[in-house]
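Support reply, case 0932

Customer input (verbatim):
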Amino acid sequence: MLVSLGAFAQKPSKMEKLITSKNKWTVRDVKSRRPYFEIGEMIKFRVDGTFYHERNNYAKLGGDWTMGDKLLLVYDSFTEERRRIPFEYKIKAWDGDGFVLKYRNRNNKKEKVYFK
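Our regenerated output:
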């Protein structure tokens, strides 16, 4: 009996479609005292579950992303031991063509990053 794999494939959510719809997302605003992101940085989410983060200091980071009820970014350290560093965010649509990442910093303070 042959079974189509397409029957088991999950349809992407509205937020997954939004974040993979644009070539690069730019940080427009940061509500944080010690931000993980800075204004002007860019991030690209690919459909294959990888992402690339271009920092303002010319560093390029990357890793894998998954989305359930939260967005999980798992950065690859690109060091000899190849550590995987996870960051978890709540993600919300913003202004029709952008999104907001919400998270808690090390001091348990709420912070936001706006992408457009």
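We compared this against your earlier run and they match. Two observations from our side: The radius of gyration is 16 Å. Residues 1-8 have pLDDT under 50 and may be disordered. Please reopen the case if you see a mismatch on your end.
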